[in-house]
Known about the structure:
- The structure is a single chain.
- This protein has helices spanning 3-26, 37-42; strands at residues 47-50, 60-63.
- It is extended and about 70 Å long.
- Strands 1-2 form a two-stranded antiparallel sheet.
- The mean pLDDT is 75.
- The longest helix is centred in the first third of the chain and has 24 residues, at 3-26.
- It has 81 residues and is of the alpha+beta class.
- It has one domain.
- It contains two helices and two strands.
Amino acid sequence: MTTRGMLALAHAGLAQDKKAAAPAATSTTSPCKGLDQAACAAKATDCQWITPKKGKQKPYCRLKSKPAKKAVAPKTSPAKP
């Protein structure tokens, strides 16, 4: 095998290692996932218990959503006469 062929194989091996490692690093799990109702209530500052109204979906615990920032109106100065 030539040097060029060996380099191509080595590069292909490194590329596969990087692709396999990337998804694991970006994957994050919720601290609320899989908790029962009592444990979810204990973490009330971060989690909330969801009870679906219809369908076959079971109740579950999820991370609370963060409130959207409201736009603040600019202060206006009174008109000078």
